[in-house]
Amino acid sequence: MHSWEGDPRPEPVQEYGTIRPVMNLKPDQSIDPQAGSWRILFAVAAGILLAAFFATGNARATFEQITKLLSVQGKPEAASPAALSEHEIESLEHKTPQQQAELLLERSVNHYEGANDQIATRVDGWWGKLKFTPRFNSLITTALNSNDLRVRAAGIELDLAAMGAVKAPATVERLAQQVEAGPQSQRVWALWELGLLGNRGVVPERVNEILVGQLRDSDPEIRHWAVEGLAYLGTNETIAPLLQEFHDDPSPMVRERAGCSLAQSGMLTHEQRRSVIPHLLDYADDASLDAQTHVWVYQALRDITGQSLPNDSSSWRGWYSTSGS
Questions:
Q1: pLDDT at 83
Q2: Helix, strand or coil for residue 171?
Q3: According to the model, what pLDDT value does residue 84 have?
Q4: Whole-angstrom Cα distance, residue 291 to residue 294?
């Protein structure tokens, strides 16, 4: 298996990207080279003038400063203050709920000040009015992969709003019945939804009980999504079952997802993730684990600590004894 991804969702989502201009030609339309000849002459003349301009020392210094600023390397360069403008906030009132949600989640992903406050204020009014368009799906997935747990929380809020998942104990009990008796696809979505609801404070102890119970299911796909649900529930009580799945589950897929849940994905805090380091060090020395799981152990250690140590337990124990604890 390959390196884990941060946050899969129960269905694949389409990627989206920045729109850029392209040249669109009709089927019977071609480019006339003569039509652009004057542009070529203009470009030659402009080139001569620019060459003269850059012959001066000040011009060269200015150009070097510009090219350095536009380089993809180096420290981040702000394009503008990372805050919602007054114009954007005013324009929200003239947008549909879908447009509001997409704009604010995009701003949240980019750490714009005020975006999460606007989401928290408006999300209750979006229930039943949002659709899982390709763009919206991609924004939620991007949010769930953010390095900021508050952005992940915003993604959870919008995922629940779009699913129409009412934040109430009755919803949890309905999903519990679906987990026990529904077809696999419905069980998968119920496990996902339960984890999100529990994270937002809806009877998290009950949610934990339901999810842990599904770790004994014979279907590895169900165990996989029980692990994902636990990752997003993110309470202290989820750590022990995730560690056990990482160590003991017979499915490599489930072990991998449990390792990722402990190290990177879901809603565990950095402090919670660091608490599993001693267990991971023990796993690194555990001869009962296969080679691939040992690789995932070291990957988890690197993700949690930010250290670039080799796949060698003595190196990791040495680091932990001096600066890791």
A1: 86
A2: helix
A3: 87
A4: 5
CA atoms within 13 A on the CB side of 291: 1
Phi, psi (degrees; rounded to nearest 5) at 83: -150, 145
Can you identify the CATH homologous superfamily of domain 169-324?
A: Leucine-rich Repeat Variant (1.25.10.10)
- For the chain, the helix, strand and coil percentages under 3-state DSSP, each to the nearest 5: 65, 0, 35
**Distance, C-alpha 64 to centroid of its chain:** 36
Report the SS3 class of residue 97: helix
How far, in Å, CA of 216 to CA of 319, rounded? 36
Q: Which contiguous run of DSSP H or E holds residue 207?
A: helix 204-214
> Per-residue pLDDT tens for 270-290?
999 999 999 999 999 999 999
pLDDT category at 13 given cuts 50, 70, 90 is very low
Domain ranges of the chain: 87-163, 169-324
**What pLDDT was estimated at residue 2?**
43
CA dihedral 244, 246, 250, 256 (to 10 degrees): 160
Q: Is 14 exposed, middle or buried (0-12, 13-18, 19+ CB in 10 A)?
A: exposed
pTM here?
Answer: 0.80
* Burial (Cβ within 10 Å: 0-12, 13-18, ≥19) of residue 302: middle
| Cα four-point dihedral sign 261, 265, 270, 274 | positive
pLDDT over 70, % of the chain: 78
Tell me which H or E stretch contains 162. helix 149-163
Q: Is the Cβ–Cβ distance between 132 and 167 less than 8 Å? A: no
Rounded distance between C-alpha atoms, residue 15 and residue 107, angstroms: 17
Number of residues written out for the chain: 325
321 DSSP 8-state letter: I
